[in-house]
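Notebook B, p. 112. Complex prediction, attempt 2.
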Amino acid sequence: MPKLKLPAPPLPDRLNPRPKRPGSTKTKPLAEAGISAIDWVDERTSLSQGARWMMFRKIPKGTNWFYTLGSATLFAFLSQTVTGVFLAMYYRPDAAGGAYESVRYITNEVFLGEFVRGMHKWGSSVMVILIFLHMARTFFFGAYKYPRELNWVIGVALLVLTMAMSFTGYLLPFDQRSYWATIVGVNINGTGPFVGPYLSDFLRAGPEFGATTLARFYAIHMLLIPGILAALIGAHLYLVAKLGTTAPPWIKADDPVQKEEKA
Ligand code: HEM
């Protein structure tokens, strides 16, 4: 019986021949360990393929600085997430004075507390300004048209959720200003048609504005909305990578028929 020759295993070229054993080359062992750890994960997940798909894309002629506004909004969101995590380490949603006291403690006693709180507070305005500028860019460049309508709709949800983040975050210091301003905001919500009264009941967490309201706003602000925001941003970016970016409206498409006629 002739010996059957088995086909070579379906390994990518880069792994064939197999990499040298760690420590047998002249590179630094620590760097090598890092590289081989990443390769180990990549061989089993092909994550680098996804990263390449996301990041190495063809972009149209004429792309300019206005196209960075989406990424700037994303950066503002990530900055809010990081500073928010640190604030949550000290904040207490206690309406009987604990919330106000914990914010005072963050501002006056915690190392870099005032800085981190300032970043979070001003960062929220920065994010709102950037999201509007990004929306204006996509509107004026006609990026909401086919086939990107769904990304526009997801964008609208992102805008509403970002505004809801600002609204729910404003109450958390629980000082006079945030308390009364939020009562006004909840009452305005209550005047909406049909859902208004249910919405304001949901926000107040009962008939009275008080301790339950603060806990509800805190849960919405740091768990509910950020979770939905992160998921929707993921979908938004997936569609951006899948559909590609729109060319600016003043860039004319290459028309082979017109070119031929001119020649
Ligand atoms: C948390 C908020 C948001 C983040 C992090 C975000 C992020 C991004 C990024 C990174 C891009 C690709 C780069 C660019 O074109 O700037 C993009 C594209 C896009 N965004 Fe947003 N975005 C957000 C909100 C919005 C809003 C509010 C709208 C509109 C209502 C919107 C509509 C679009 C559209 C239509 C595109 C495709 C643009 C094109 O193909 O040229 N986004 N977004």
